[in-house]
Amino acid sequence: MGIEIVWTKKAVETFGNRITYLEEHWTEKEIFNFTARVNEYLETLKTQPLMFRKSARIKHTHIGLIIKQVSLIYRIKPKSKTIELIAFIDNRQNPRRQNY
Which CATH class for the 4-92 domain? Predict the structure, then answer.
């Protein structure tokens, strides 16, 4: 049972921010490894959307660890059978400073 994944503008922006950070501070290898990990994660998400931790505050919203430094916030929309990617967050930042 595959579910369609939809990227919000904020998800595209925050993913781009993570790639920009890697370009500035790391090598092409790390960028490749990160994008490969995100692709693996999204494939898992399509088949097992409930696998990752539920948000305590927002209904149908989950938070999953992609790598130690980056998590993904996503929302499951059961009626439309879609997963909406909300934002890629840096786990090292203060959560109150992150605007998602």
Answer: alpha beta
